[in-house]
Q: What sequence folds into this?
């Protein structure tokens, strides 16, 4: 009798879960709402270059530096972090090679999961054609993040071992309030959470001007962007591989 009752209870529980899941909005609709809230597809695909400047800080360590980001459609990026304390750290993607270089650690060419993540994150308008990078998007529930009610969407990429990325869409605004992912690197698996905020309209695009990133639940990085421009002229050679990175690429051929 106890087993029968347990079986009946589990069946009722499963029915309840299915019923709850059926009430969740489709992930595709939440993504479409985010695209619309950000300015709409026509505006998001209107520009093909961008430039941003601001500050990079690690409050717990007392580190502050300048940051500059260049982007060009469809997927070229270059980021420079400049500090009197540790020199210049740079990273980028030239459409094929994802890399990083600094005076402290030298040059590195990203491979595997790191390359896959860099390829996705370098896209100029990633949410307009998200299906190119993700095999599935599913709404799995709702959560309150820092007082904001959010829908939680899990997105499974084509590349990178299929580890789902979690996107938290604010229910009221449709904007992204948090992202979370497990990043596998040579240092092991790192849990990375990002909290975009302070959205401002820039040439028709609603852009987060602040992003707080938390690594492994403890190490905090804060990006405060002061300027953001679209449709800018990009200096020649911005996306070229640095000499030390190019040397690594030639080595590995």
A:
């Amino acid at each position: 009798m106890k087993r029968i009752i347990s079986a009946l209870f589990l069946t009722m529980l499963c029915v309840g879960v299915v019923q709850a899941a059926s009430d969740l909005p489709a992930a595709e609709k939440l993504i479409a709402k985010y695209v619309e809230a950000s300015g709409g597809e026509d505006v998001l695909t209107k520009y093909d270059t961008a430039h941003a400047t601001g500050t990079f800080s690690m409050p717990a360590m007392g580190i502050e530096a300048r940051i500059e980001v260049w982007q060009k459609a469809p997927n070229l990026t270059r980021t420079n972090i400049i500090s009197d304390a540790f020199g210049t750290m740079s990273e980028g993607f030239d459409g094929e090679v994802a890399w990083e270089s600094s005076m402290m650690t030298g040059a590195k060419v990203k491979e595997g999961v790191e390359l896959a993540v860099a390829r996705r994150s370098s896209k100029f308008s990633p949410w307009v054609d998200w299906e190119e990078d993700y095999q599935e998007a599913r709404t799995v529930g709702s959560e309150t993040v820092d007082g904001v009610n959010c829908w939680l969407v899990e997105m499974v990429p084509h590349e990178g071992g299929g580890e789902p990325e979690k996107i938290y869409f604010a229910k009221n605004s449709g904007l992204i309030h948090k992202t979370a992912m497990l990043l596998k690197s040579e240092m092991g698996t790192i849990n990375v959470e990002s909290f975009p905020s302070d959205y401002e309209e820039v040439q028709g695009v609603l852009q987060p001007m602040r992003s707080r990133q938390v690594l492994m639940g403890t190490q905090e990085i804060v990006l405060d962007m002061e300027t953001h421009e679209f449709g800018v002229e990009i200096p020649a050679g911005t996306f070229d591989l640095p000499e030390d990175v190019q040397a690594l690429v030639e080595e590995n051929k």
About this structure: Residues 2-251 form a domain with the outer membrane lipoprotein receptor (LolB), chain A fold (CATH 2.50.20.10).
